[in-house]
Amino acid sequence: MVSESVRGPKQLTELRCLPTFELRVAGQAVPLAHRSQRVLVLLAVRGGPVDRAELAGTLWPDVSASRAYSSLRSTLWGLARIGPSPVTAVGTSVQLSRDVRVDVETARRLAMRIIDRGPGKISASTALATLRHDFLPSWSEEWLTAEQHHYRQLRLHALEVLSRYLSERGDHAHAVEAGLLALAVEPLRESAHRTLMLAHLAEGNRAEAIWQYHRCRDLLETELGLAPSPEMQALLQKALQHGPVDLTDGGGGGPAGTKQRPARSPDDRATGRAGAPSGERPRADDAVSGDDGPEQAAAAGG
């Protein structure tokens, strides 16, 4: 129970779910039993009034209705003792109190804003901090799974859009960080690998971009038995071409008339470059020159 010293008319109540559960009232953490945590998270997910019978049946599905209702009643009684209470009764329903701020909802709104029109005046560091974590990843609740997946997909798309937005504005360090965060969430997501390649290319780091391609290729082949998409291979061609890299089409083919080196043979799947162990970064000179032999080099020079 929160001490009297933190009670007041303008106390901020925060429900944090990214990445772990925490309830804070006026800056003080409030310890709660897991059943109380589950009630608050379910109410946050629903975003409005939830009938008591539905709430009890969802949270305690393996017991009788009367016992589930009794468990809910005792849990709500305990939550009501917190000053101010994070829950409000509305007839036969219960909902989060209006003054409760839920971090996952704040992150969700930010993600939608970034996807729709960019971060605006929100700084890159604030956006990255807000989108850094998953929604209660250690929880395995049937009623929560769909919401966790939905938030993860929204977060991934926002991070990819944010990375490209920052690259276009020359904020390369934060652009790379956004791409790395997306990859940490889903290492097999090819669009995240493409986004990171674009961030490296925008900064002029071709070797990093080429290494990222080989990393993606090896992961896809090892884990899924798949080859990189044509879009991914076209982006590799951009990294291998001579002269400035045109990124205006987001990873498609290069501009007309640009001479490009061919991508490595699909058979060379075990190495990042000829003779290099799998996973080793290719040297910049090897990566840019490709596997051209003496005859090709002479022809190019002539």
How would you describe the overall organization of this protein?
The structure is a single chain. With 302 residues, the chain is of the alpha+beta class. Helices cover 52% and strands 8% of the residues. The chain has twelve helices and seven strands. It has helices at residues 34-46, 52-59, 65-80, 103-117, 124-130, 142-168, 172-185, 190-202, 206-224, 230-240, 284-289, 294-301, and strands at residues 13-16, 22-25, 28-29, 50-51, 87-90, 93-96, 100-102. Strands 3-2-1-7 form a four-stranded mixed sheet. The protein has a three-stranded antiparallel sheet with strand order 4-6-5. Strand 1 (13-16) and strand 2 form a beta hairpin. It is elongated, with a radius of gyration of 26 Å. The model is unreliable at 1-8, 251-280 and 282-302 (pLDDT under 50).
Features:
302 residues, alpha+beta, four-stranded mixed beta sheet, three-stranded antiparallel beta sheet, 12 helices, 7 strands, 8% strand, disordered N terminus
